[in-house]
Design goal:
heterotrimer, A mainly alpha (347), B mainly alpha (290), C alpha/beta (259), B: 290 residues, mainly alpha, two-stranded antiparallel ribbon, 73% helix, globular, C: 4-stranded antiparallel β-sheet, 10 helices, 10 strands
């Protein structure tokens, strides 16, 4: 007699899917025709952390942060500046980046999440604007509008990870860990509580969830992850420029979360693909492609309001799980494919 | 003193633009709860359309009027074809779809009107004026004047006409308004048309001063959000006051402190207001502490 | 000492006293109804006990311990659970997940354990799922456990809220108009369910307009009018109480009838 619990079963299954995905991705360096395509894979992995971190605050708690590119940039600049100006090791720089960005978000979150309304959007808007100005104006530190160059790459066992082939494995590993931890969180009591806050904050509060604390933790974590992504970007790109981290990019990231599927665990995978691939496609073609992109966006938002990830998985509920006293085991195809749960379906 | 007056007028001029854009932004926020990311693009649309028409030989005033009309139509189309088609129109989903509208608007302008910056002549000819010892662009006075008329007209419209009050009612309580005969679709269309119209108006009066191009819209929209929030999201008067204050503050900071950090003023002020007066200066928002 | 003691509670909005010096007791294991004409202040009192409404004056004690400064989530941890008249379900979560949130006060492990998926946190997850299933079964909804709560009808969603509130194994279950908006055919079932839950030792407080249900279920009824105490007692006592009848009918009536 084997009673398969839905949540345990779901975690196991999602983990397997994640592992398979990562195994598949390990083939990327071998199937890439050149370094440029290989780099795209790296940028995808970094962008995945970025979009997933925004999904954490936006999709899971329903608050729109307009500073996410700013947090990304802050992470890149903190780690970059530490390495260029102070010669600090990129590893320490990365840790510092995550901490600094997390701390900034903690303060903003405390100030703005207490209030009901678009105050987080306002606060992040303001913070994003200030960061943009600082990136451009603090020339001795950041290199100003021309950007920060000469960032040192990571070094492992004396080898510089300064080629796409070498860096790929670092990105592959770090992103795997991040997505693994996020999966654990998503399918846990705390993750569920965060998603409940999005559904009804007052309902969650009444049921025992300290909603303010949870929102602040989610926001801090989300920013820290963006900072981590920023540091990875800086030490791969070896160059950081203020334009990459502006308000426009923050807005675009918000859209990526929505297109992928806001609040769904697998949403950011699609969002990150779009975020990485589309500029490449747009670069090659004429401006009409931007219009096409805009119209595709509208089409997705109108016809698939749950995002692309909401299309995967079945809509039917699992076969009834019998009460604990009953000894009939649910069939193995019970895979808890609830629409919106984020666990990919078995086909 | 002369310098101060100069800075003040320049600030009021920029502030008037912010005020107009923030006004439109606020009317959409009131009707939908959403942040309209296409607002800045509509400003750019107005300026570019007018500039292109004028360059093609159309008389100035006609170019301006056509530009505003085009934008108003874009606003209507945006609402009818896009926003109104959303299955679950929540504040978040409308906000996100306005980004798509912004992208489409921007690319349409790029394709149809070209990527080169374009300009318009100052309305009353080239030449600055001397006022109380300071030098002021004549266009700045046009901006302040036209914007002031527009803002007064809006205040009158929303405060004292049946249609205006109906729009406000529909924004506050759509179902109740529908019950007394105010169609939610119509009022939302009107809101979008109004927002696009005021944005385009701002665009045509500022272009003689600053030129315009297809990528001009974003930073302006950005500042307009700050202005609207400064005044208190949801307050029409607040949007206008916020815009003017922001413009003046920026100008003074730029002149007295440092031109480098001028842009930061908007954001610093926003954060300060957020911490001290979350309702904004004039808003009566819903502050619910959790 | 009663399980819940409400002493001289006042809730004022500006000059308006929604609740004006009200005192009452709820004994453990009983079902207490709060009734009164519209505007009597029942919902305000209810919200004040639940923690969403701050008191202007007075005290509220749960098992002797004062809770009037506790925020809603703290009251949940102290054993208070409530449902909402206008529903506050989580539509994008499944029924099972909705009810599992109800278990939250006793989850025990923190963010870090969850992120690392420690065996302790997974074990707790399993226990919470079991509890949630039990509560859903109790309300006859276990077969829909995997569906999204947003697909439920209004009446079913009300049941879901009750299941969710029960998941915390509360000391006091507070029901905010549990059958308002529910089809007549389902109302009796909810009433039976409330009785069954109470039989297992859960104290119940309910605000309700449906007199038949109130008379049938409650051990004791509190009647409010204009924010003040009007009468309190057993259904029989309240049913024939002249002032209560007058309050509902609006005037002294020689045609006294059971409400």
């Amino acid at each position: 007699m084997q009673a398969r619990f839905i949540s345990i079963g779901k975690l196991g299954q999602s983990r397997r899917i994640l592992a398979l995905l990562w195994l598949a991705m390990a083939a990327w360096p071998f199937i890439s025709p050149n370094d440029y395509v290989l780099s795209l894979g790296i940028y995808f992995l970094i962008n995945l952390i970025l979009v997933a971190s925004l999904n954490l605050i936006m999709g899971w708690t329903g608050q729109v942060s307009l500073a996410h590119a700013g947090f990304y940039g802050l992470g890149a600049y903190v780690s970059g500046v530490l390495s260029v100006r102070l010669g600090i090791s990129p590893w320490w720089g990365t840790a510092a980046a995550a901490l600094v960005v997390g701390a900034a978000a903690y303060l903003i979150g405390l100030a703005t999440l207490r209030l009901r309304g678009p105050y987080l959007s306002m606060g992040t808007l303001g913070f994003s604007g200030i960061l943009s100005v600082l990136f451009v104006e603090l020339v001795p530190l950041t290199g100003g509008p021309n950007g920060l160059s000469g960032i040192t790459p990571y070094a492992l066992f004396g080898i510089d990870l300064d080629t796409p082939a070498r860096f790929f494995w670092l990105a592959w590993g770090v992103t795997a860990v991040v997505m693994w931890l996020l999966l654990n969180l998503y399918l846990s009591a705390q993750g569920r509580a965060l998603r409940a806050i999005e559904g009804s904050e007052i309902g969650a509060n009444t049921l025992g969830v300290h909603t303010l604390a949870y929102k602040v933790v989610a926001f801090t974590l989300s920013a820290a992850l963006a900072g981590l992504a920023g540091a990875l970007y800086a030490h791969f790109n070896l160059f950081a420029s203020p334009e990459t981290f502006g308000f426009g990019t923050s807005v675009l990231l918000v859209v990526m979360v929505a297109l992928g599927g806001s609040g769904l665990y697998w949403g950011p995978f699609f969002g990150a693909v779009i975020f990485t691939a589309v500029p490449e496609l747009l670069r090659k073609f004429q401006d009409v492609e931007l219009l096409v992109f805009g119209m595709c966006m509208i089409a997705v938002l109108l016809f698939f309001p749950g995002g692309i990830a909401s299309l995967i998985g079945h809509r039917s509920p699992p076969k009834p799980r019998t009460a604990p006293a009953d000894h009939s085991a649910p069939p193995p195809s019970q895979s808890a494919q609830e629409h919106g749960d984020g666990a990919a379906g078995s086909r | 003193m002369a310098e101060l007056l100069q800075l003040l007028i320049s600030g009021l001029s920029t502030g008037s633009i912010y005020a107009l854009v923030a006004l439109g932004f606020t009317i959409i926020f009131k009707s939908t709860g959403a942040l309209n990311f296409a607002q800045g693009e509509w400003v750019m649309l107005g300026g570019m359309t007018a500039a292109t028409l004028f360059a093609a030989g159309v008389p100035l005033l006609v170019s301006l009027l056509i530009a505003v009309v085009v934008a108003v139509l874009m606003g209507l189309l945006s609402q009818r074809l896009v926003v109104g088609q959303l299955r679950k129109p929540s504040a978040m989903s409308i906000t996100i779809i306005t980004v798509a509208i912004a992208i489409c608007t921007k690319s349409l302008v790029m394709l149809i009107l070209g990527k080169n910056p374009a300009g318009l002549p100052p309305f009353s000819g080239e030449g600055a004026l001397r006022i109380a010892g300071g030098v002021v662009e004549s266009q700045a006075l046009w901006i302040i004047g036209v914007a002031a008329v527009m803002m007064a007209a809006s205040t009158y419209f929303f405060g004292h006409t049946v249609l205006g009050k109906a729009l406000r009612a529909a924004a506050a309580q759509p179902e109740a308004a529908a019950l007394v005969g105010i169609s939610p679709q119509l009022s939302m269309s009107l809101s979008f048309m109004f927002a696009a119209g005021t944005a385009a108006l701002a665009g045509v009066i500022v272009t003689p001063l600053t030129l315009t191009s297809f990528d001009h819209g974003t930073i302006l929209g950005f500042k307009a959000f700050c202005a609207a929030m400064l005044g208190g999201l949801g307050s029409l008067t607040g949007a206008m006051v916020g815009g003017l204050l922001l413009g003046v503050a920026e100008s003074l900071a730029g002149g007295k402190l440092s031109s480098h950090f001028k842009d930061a003023v908007a954001f610093v002020v926003l954060l300060l207001v957020l911490v001290k007066w979350p309702n904004g200066l004039l808003g009566r928002g819903q502050i619910e502490k959790v | 000492m009663a399980l819940l003691e409400v002493d001289d509670v006042r809730v004022s909005f500006g000059g308006l006293h929604a609740v004006d010096g009200l005192s009452t007791r709820v004994e453990e294991g009983t079902i207490k109804g709060i009734i009164g004409p519209n505007g009597a202040g029942k919902t305000t009192l209810f919200n004040a006990i639940a923690g969403i409404q701050r008191l202007s004056a007075g005290t509220i004690r749960l098992s002797g311990r004062s809770i009037e400064h506790a925020r809603p989530f703290e009251r949940a941890r102290l054993g208070l659970a409530r449902t909402f008249q206008n529903l506050q379900i989580f539509p994008d979560l499944t029924l099972l997940e909705n009810v599992m949130i109800g278990c939250h006060p006793r989850v025990g492990t923190g963010f870090l354990s969850s992120i690392l998926a420690t065996p302790a946190s997974r074990a707790r997850e399993q226990r919470m799922e079991e509890t949630a299933y039990d509560k859903l079964s109790l309300l006859g909804m276990a077969d829909r456990a995997g569906e999204l709560a947003g697909n439920l009808s209004f009446g079913q969603a009300k049941l879901l809220e009750i299941a969710r509130a029960l998941a915390a194994e509360p000391k006091i279950l507070m029901l905010d108009e549990p059958i308002a908006g529910v089809p007549a055919s389902e109302q009796g079932g909810i009433g039976d369910m409330i009785k069954a839950v109470n039989a297992q030792g859960v104290t119940v407080i309910l605000v309700e307009h449906n007199m038949r249900m109130v008379m049938r279920l409650c051990d004791e009824i509190l009647v409010m009018r204009n924010g003040r105490f009007l009468a309190e007692g057993t259904p029989a006592h309240i049913g024939t109480h002249p002032e209560v009848i007058a309050a509902y009918l609006g005037k002294e009536s020689s045609h006294a009838q059971r409400p």
